[in-house]
Amino acid sequence: MRANGSEQIAGRMQRNLLGLNMRPCSTVMHLLLRCMRGCGRHSRSRMPRRLRQPMSYIKLIFKSLYFNSLTNSEVVLDCILEPVFWMVEVITRWFGMVFVFLVVALTSSVVFIAYVCLLPLVLQTYSLGWMMWHICYGNWILVMIVFHYYKATNTPPGYPPKMKNEVPFVSFCKKCVIPKPARSHHCGICKTCILKMDHHCPWLNNCVGHYNHRYFFSFCLFLTLGCMYCSISGRNLFIDAYNAIDEISQPPYTYKDRMFHKSVIYMWVLTSTVSVALGALTLWHAVLITRGETSIERHINNKEAKRLAKRGKVYRNPFSYGKLNNWKVFFGVEKRSHWLTRVLLPSGHTPYGDGLTWDIYPLKKDMLPV
């Protein structure tokens, strides 16, 4: 009995000692949590009332980035680059007329050099056949460039109706608060929705849309051809002018001769650079026209094609009528003579349709024999 009593007393003493060891640990943890809560409360109470609402709003925005199930890397990247996009829109809106002035000034300078410096050489050195070729081709290119640039800058791209109507729409613009028909998109620079929007061109100070898309592409095409013409035909003159300026022992050139050499070098460098850069842009838009899509639709169609490819399906562009028919629809070609009167000569005809609906049934089949 004594042995059992001593064992019970020893067990009680051991449990009391363990309880004394555990209580300080739990007490310390409890005090630490209370301190953290108190610090948080004190920090909230110290924060001015004006900052509490903005801080809570910032926390909500930050949490929305990773609590949204639809968030991906592209959405996060768009949010990060939003200030950059805003700055580009502001600069483009403010300097739109400056870009137009640069286009007019640079083109006029090349035309001035061609007529004042190069045309007299053509009349003196070339045969009658080559002389007629340069005069006819050069003036034809110039007329096409001026006509299409004027039409591209002054023709409205087309806007969706803002009043209630029966036109079918595919989405709703949250900024314009109007229904958006198919192929329409909102332009942040123009502050409105554009029919069949391709992009906002700062060099036109205008959006490229349904009614001026043909003028924009034709301007790029003929300006590229004109720059290539000046670059190729003026290559020998450029080499001679460059060698004349680069020589150490220069002959006694007059002021007129030095200005002639510098003008030829300026024209050749400018036209060669523009022909390469603008030629690449024109080629890209030619590919898009062949596929029956705009620059914006190119990105949308790629995403849709990838999404359907994961399901084992193939995406087909609903606005493509075939490679040749896409060009016919774009240029408004209905018969053979239109390739001359509507493509190779200045023409102010309107495009097919109104830009609101795209059911061009007669164009499903070839209108021209291939």
From TrEMBL:
Membrane topology: Multi-pass membrane protein
Its EC number(s): 2.3.1.225
Enzyme class at the top of the EC tree: transferase
Pfam family for this entry, one: DHHC
Main subcellular location: membrane
Keywords, comma-separated and alphabetical: Acyltransferase, Membrane, Transferase, Transmembrane, Transmembrane helix
Recorded catalytic activity of this chain's protein: L-cysteinyl-[protein] + hexadecanoyl-CoA = S-hexadecanoyl-L-cysteinyl-[protein] + CoA
MF terms in GO: protein-cysteine S-palmitoyltransferase activity
InterPro entries membership: Palmitoyltrfase_DHHC, PFA4/ZDH16/20/ERF2-like
Gene Ontology annotations for the cellular component aspect, listed alphabetically: membrane
Location of the protein in the cell: Membrane
Membrane spanning stretches: 94-118, 130-150, 215-232, 265-287
Residue ranges of domain Palmitoyltransferase DHHC in the record: 171-299
Residues in coiled coil: none
Domain comment, as recorded: The DHHC domain is required for palmitoyltransferase activity.
Family: Belongs to the DHHC palmitoyltransferase family.
PANTHER family: PALMITOYLTRANSFERASE ZDHHC16
Name by which UniProt lists this protein: Palmitoyltransferase
Organism: Cyprinus carpio carpio
